[in-house]
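4.2 Preliminary Data

To establish feasibility before requesting continued support, the project team ran the inverse folding procedure on a target of 234 residues. The structure was first converted into the token representation described in Section 3, and no sequence information of any kind was made available to the design step. The complete token record follows.
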């Protein structure tokens, strides 16, 4: 008998296995229907936020796997998974620019329906904030166990190639968090202004302060030390 490849074989809703596996029915019903949108731009607002949440969820998942690999001493796999997570985080940053195309007057129509909804409660961003120091602790524990400093890993980077790769991927992650906050601040300043209060009562200026937050201070400061050392030895 000839197989009918068009017939779905998976359980679930939808006419095809593609729709059933990805649950596209549910996924595509998570946005406000056209007739209920407060403004035609609201769909873009929702699609950008929901996509960002998915990508941050995916990145957190890979970062947790990277942390477990790091604890196990599997540096190559840890760096590989962090590389993947960092590639995912490029997108929430890029997606912010889409929202820059909403003009302030139109945004206020959408904003009126947000209640106290605020990115401060973003599950995706909160999970990234949660995982960052835990990866830092795992890295530090490995240095301590081996009797190494971060400077040793950088100075002898060829010898500690894989651990150096982990450190660099951690820095990539930290940089992406800072880039997200920077571009998000610019977006907020552009659409609602830098001197106002957000939907959760937080002044936009607070976003500026939060932008200073760094997860792996030691790795950033190390550069200063390396440059200072180079200056004294030259
Ligand atoms: C029109 C677009 C946007 C505006 C005007 C805006 C505005 C704001 C404001 C004013 C805050 C401060 C807290 C408060 O709400 O009171 C905030 C926080 C935040 N928003 Fe947005 N936002 C926008 C889009 C987005 C998008 C697309 C995301 C992606 C998930 C996002 C994620 C966040 C996060 C994570 C925070 C906390 C920031 C931190 O901890 O530094 N926002 N946003």
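Position-by-position output of the design step:
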């Amino acid at each position: 008998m000839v197989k009918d490849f068009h017939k779905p074989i998976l359980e679930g809703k939808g006419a095809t296995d593609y729709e059933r596996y990805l649950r596209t029915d549910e996924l595509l019903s998570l946005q406000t229907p056209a007739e209920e949108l407060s403004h035609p731009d609201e769909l873009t607002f929702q699609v950008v936020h929901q996509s960002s949440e998915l990508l941050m969820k995916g990145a957190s998942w890979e970062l947790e796997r990277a942390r477990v690999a790091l604890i196990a001493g599997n540096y190559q796999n840890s760096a590989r998974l962090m590389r993947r997570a960092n590639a995912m985080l490029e997108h929430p940053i890029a997606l912010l620019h889409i929202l820059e195309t909403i003009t302030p007057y139109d945004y206020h129509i959408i904003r009126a329906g947000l209640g106290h909804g605020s990115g401060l409660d973003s599950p995706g961003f909160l999970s990234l904030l949660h995982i960052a120091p835990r990866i830092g602790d795992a890295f530090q524990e490995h240095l301590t166990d081996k009797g190494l400093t971060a400077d040793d890993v950088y100075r002898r980077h060829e010898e500690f190639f894989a651990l150096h790769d982990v450190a660099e991927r951690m820095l990539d992650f930290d940089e992406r968090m800072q880039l997200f906050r920077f571009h998000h601040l610019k977006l907020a300043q552009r659409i609602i202004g830098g001197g106002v209060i957000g939907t959760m009562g937080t002044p936009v200026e607070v976003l500026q302060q939060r932008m200073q937050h760094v997860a792996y201070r030691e790795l950033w400061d190390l550069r200063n030390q390396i440059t200072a050392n180079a200056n004294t030895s030259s």
